[in-house]
Amino acid sequence: MEYISTRGTAPALGFRDALMAGLAKDGGLYVPRKWPTLSKKQIRALRGKSYQEVAFEILSLFVDGEIADDKLRGMIDEAYATFRHPAVVPLVQVGPNDFILELFHGTTLAFKDVAMQLLARLMDHVLAERGERATIVGATSGDTGGAAIDAFAGRERTDIFILFPHEKVSPVQQRQMTSSSASNVHAIAVKGNFDDCQNLVKEMFNDAAFRDKVKLSGVNSINWARIMSQVVYYFTAALSLGGPDRKISFTVPTGNFGDIFAGYVAKKMGLPIDRLVIATNDNDILARTLKTGRYEMKGVKATTSPSMDIQISSNFERLLFEAYDRDDAAVRRSMDGLKQSGSFEIKEKALKAIKREFRAGRATERQVAATIRETLSVTGYLLDPHTATGVFVAAKNAKPSSPMVTLSTAHPAKFPAAVKSACGIDPALPSWLSDLMQREERFDILEPELKAVETFIGSNARAK
Ligand SMILES: Cc1ncc(COP(=O)(O)O)c(C=O)c1O
Ligand SMILES: N[C@@H](CCOP(=O)(O)O)C(=O)O
Question: 140 CA to middle of ligand 2, Å?
Fold first, then answer.
């Protein structure tokens, strides 16, 4: 299996090199040259298997023999042993045809743990095999950072630097990032928003001298291995609801477009998916884009679902590549437009292709709060604000004939203030995190300037 860049001018790589590269050298994102497919018969054969077994069957198609099967199985088993639920990602029924896929039973209470626990092990394995070290960077609006720090803390071959927007994450998210005592962990509060953090990460990748000097690697969903790990739960959820002999719909609270792109990949692989619905908060750039065909940045608004307060939705680039029939020149033009003017137009044929695969909707702050309150009163189920965004949009896009699964991307205790203000309940952190808010914090505050960030990383990274 070869991985190619959405911008077409970086070398094609095998799985291990794509894993370690993160972003392609031409600024593009890696995707498999060809989607691996499974027949309905092969998908049926996954019924009754554990999450770990299904993960192995799906992921080995992408790893393609570059990691020995027994090693890959071992890493999958270890990664999902960190989850507190035996099903890893349980499905909960909240209405006749409505389901919540709980992706928050990992160590940091967000869906990021699903991919990150495996990613850290995969990277460690490849680095050990090569006798190398790497410098990991990541940008976060709150959840990726905590998950990455938890997964990489104390690992011998990596130093990890996480950029988060100063004073724009929830107190629980911040403490998860700033309370690690591991010497290879560096939490950096950037005086800006998430898009500033993500731009800095991409600029570091595009600075060839710096990238090579510190042996840069990335853990955001620009890294293909993040996406592939998230494909697995679309399969397990569909299988438990009668797939592949029944079409299932999914609604996904969306920001950087990684999670829902994984659903698109599952569909390309042969999983019968009915509707794939993008749910956004007031930062509705994706919903507007589907409506108007114009991707246009309008400034980020702070919401009660801060992890989705994003304007530059990285993985939309992977979708554009697909919608333009893999025409990398069209992707380059769009991305240049975004950089120069903060917008680009999607050509009619490509927009039609996108609309064939996706629907989109927005939940305002009032609608998010009302959804938390009403879901609790009708079903007794407590939603976090990101999941509530999904549940609200799911209700507008559900079809009576197919089950609708909303991905629950975070535990309500990560956002206690928003949950309490919506419904009066102050959700408690699970026992293993009960002392989190008393743990000592350690982080640095930097200006949103490439030079400042590179100097900080350059002087703390050990992979030189
Ligand atoms: C809790 C939560 N929900 C939803 C999202 C959006 O996911 P994605 O960026 O993959 O679209 C994020 C962050 O990305 C998140 O942390
Ligand atoms: N919401 C994310 C933003 C980064 O997304 P990623 O999936 O590309 O890592 C976060 O919580 O940090």
Answer: 5
